[in-house]
């Protein structure tokens, strides 16, 4: 589960080379999917975007303070799949509603493993390539804040961290991003993107535990 070396790529610029690299790595990844009764389905976006310095980053949000579930937690843009929707339709709709980005199906680079949460969701991560951030804006009430995190942050020497808890035999992931610690499920999906999407390694997320406060 745990990578022994960070192996930061030499080139994390927002270029066609990086897009091709991520697309190829995802295409070669044998995706794990789940079908489980009584679990709700959701899809989220890891949206790779340009930074002002020309390097690539991705979008992370902080959920609204007054949401009924998981309020004020860090999250990837996305949400529940509505009846009749595909997971792709959901993620493109949600990035428009939550952060103002209009992205088409041609922005989809690939997929990673479903993550089954303690709170009863099956989350499908979809990787997007988004070059136009001119309409980037948080949806009032839904999103408190939007962050663009450089991909280089995923290769910090103190990342990842693994914590033991008495409630589970699995290790809890703490993913340092700037001055924050991101946990599963969001942290697990981002960590798999680092290993699989960027580095082309095989990593599964089913042994990555969530902190107890996220189980509800």
Largest sheet: 8 strands, mixed
Q: Based on the structure given, which CATH architecture is correct?
A: Alpha-Beta Complex
What string gives the helices and strands in order?
HEEEEHEEEEEEEHE
What would the CATH topology be? Nucleoside Triphosphate Pyrophosphohydrolase
How many domain units?
A: 1
Query: CATH-wise, what's the superfamily?
Result: Nucleoside Triphosphate Pyrophosphohydrolase
Number of helices: 3
Give the C-alpha Rg. 16 Å
Textual characterization of the structure:
A hairpin with a 2-residue loop joins strand 10 and strand 11. The protein has a single domain, classed as Nucleoside Triphosphate Pyrophosphohydrolase (Alpha-Beta Complex), CATH 3.90.79. It has 216 residues and is an alpha+beta fold. It contains three helices and twelve strands. 18% of the residues lie in helices and 29% in strands.
Quick gist of this model?
This protein is of the alpha+beta class. 18% of the residues lie in helices and 29% in strands.
Name the features:
single chain, 216 residues, alpha+beta, Nucleoside Triphosphate Pyrophosphohydrolase, 8-stranded mixed β-sheet, 4-stranded mixed β-sheet, 3 helices, 12 strands, 18% helix, globular
Provide the fold topology:
Blueprint: H1 16-27, E1 40-50, E2 56-63, E3 74-75, E4 78-80, H2 87-99, E5 108-111, E6 115-116, E7 121-129, E8 143-150, E9 161-163, E10 171-177, E11 180-182, H3 186-198, E12 208-209
């Amino acid at each position: 589960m745990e990578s022994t070396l960070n192996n930061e790529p030499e080139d994390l610029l927002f270029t066609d080379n990086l897009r091709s690299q991520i697309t190829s790595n995802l295409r070669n990844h044998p995706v794990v999917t789940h079908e489980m009764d009584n679990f709700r389905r959701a899809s989220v976006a890891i949206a790779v975007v340009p930074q002002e310095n020309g390097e690539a980053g991705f979008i992370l949000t902080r959920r609204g303070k007054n949401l009924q579930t998981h309020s004020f937690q860090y999250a990837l843009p996305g949400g529940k799949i509505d009846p009749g929707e595909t997971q792709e339709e959901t993620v493109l709709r949600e990035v428009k509603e939550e952060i103002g980005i209009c992205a088409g199906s041609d922005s989809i680079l690939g997929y990673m493993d479903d993550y089954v949460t303690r709170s009863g969701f099956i989350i499908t991560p979809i990787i997007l390539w988004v070059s136009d951030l001119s309409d980037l804006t948080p949806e009032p009430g839904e999103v408190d804040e939007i962050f663009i995190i450089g991909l280089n942050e995923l290769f910090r020497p103190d990342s990842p961290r693994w914590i033991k808890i008495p409630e589970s035999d699995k290790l809890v992931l703490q993913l340092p991003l700037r001055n924050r610690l991101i946990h599963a499920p969001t942290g697990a999906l981002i960590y798999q993107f680092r290993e699989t999407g960027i580095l082309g390694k095989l990593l599964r997320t089913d042994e990555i535990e969530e902190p107890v406060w996220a189980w509800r």
